[in-house]
Amino acid sequence: MTAAAPPDIDAAVVGAGIGGLATAHALRRAGREVQVFEAADSVGGRMRTLRRGGWTVDTGAEMIPSAGYPATWALIRELGFGAADVPRVSRALSVWRDGRARPNAGRPLGLLTGAGLSARARLELLRLLSGGGDEATGTLEEFAERLGPELRDGFLFPLAAGFFGWRPERSAAAPLLAHLRSTGSAAHWRTYRDGMDTLARRLAAGLDVATGRVVHEVAAVPGGARLTLDGTAVTARSAVLAVPAPLAGGLHPGAPQEERDFLAACSFAPMLRVSLELARRPAGAAGMRGFAVLIPAAEDDLVNVVTLDHNKHPDRAPAGRGLVSLVSTPRATASLIGAGDAEIAAALAERAERYLPGLRGLLGRVHVHRFPHGLPEAAPAALRARAAFRGRPARAIDYAGDWVELRPCSEGAVASAHVAASRVLADAAERCPAHGARPVPGKDNR
């Protein structure tokens, strides 16, 4: 790329998940012309929603806590969402224990009513949630050795497995504890009324997004980056890889060493979720009246979470119908993810009969959602490699995604987008002041 041959694209973003779209949005607001390339046929990434015949089927289970998600809430307000667009999820979380769902898990009320935990375990949980976080070193399994077995096996491990797909022996404790402490009570969880892809669709509406476009390689070249896609090559002044770390490493094999080290350390947990359209809302087993029920491994080695999506928001299913999703345990996911849809659905639905008697007699369409790269594991090796990655100089090729922040949630992805956009602008300003544009709006870009 030379001055005589200007780049084909000003700024390219690879991936139209929430991280990529938020990055493109921030760059566009800063005055850059942005092209987003997405391999799938729709936007949203791991936050996609399927719509058909009055059903709104979320492929995941995204919640929006009222606290601990500042970047997400700032974006929601900027895009003009009203209170009705992000309604509260009533009775969001329960834990299955001793044959019934124990409500009020993750809420202050649960510390009074028990939420299935003894008084001793509740006090232990209170100390855990009020701690500073610096004491958490090593893996979640290593950290949990200091906890009682009731809190460890009945709440902390099921939570990590059910929502993040984590195996305690692989993932670090510090990111999970920081997430729990920052987000606070489950009583204030919210959702997107029109499906979990609502934010992605709203962002994409104001951007130039090309779906069904597969990028095969990204390489640094003089003056920017070269993207190889669909048998052709295009050049860009800047490029952001907003895909899971293992995919980003494969796309950019020539990345500098401190980037390759972090990318290699950012392993991902696979996730498997089955959504079941039902002829009517099922009569739940004891206590199953809320949205999500965590099931400890001691209770079930196959099903980790049961969600009543029609309780998440009534518009998820047609009137009188039901929508239930089942998340498999991490170990079951590893053995099932390569199986056929019918086998996966049959295995999980049969096991879920113990929580929702008569479930199989209500079955309509079944949706199997596979995520080989479900959520970043935030392994200790990634924590160690992160300092060098964060300290690297701004370059023409950068990254966005929840793995960049080692926080497996949409807030991690949105926060990473501001960082990526700021770095891209700083690099462009250094290489060519005329293209540096203004800083990312609403952020401290120092």
Automatic annotation (TrEMBL):
Pfam families: Amino_oxidase. This is FAD-dependent oxidoreductase. Residues 18-425 form the Amine oxidase domain. SUPFAM superfamilies: FAD-linked reductases, C-terminal domain, FAD/NAD(P)-binding domain. The lineage of its organism: Bacteria, Bacillati, Actinomycetota, Actinomycetes, Streptosporangiales. It comes from the Bacteria. InterPro entries: Amino_oxidase, FAD/NAD-bd_sf, Zeta_carotene_desat/Oxidored. It comes from Streptomonospora wellingtoniae.
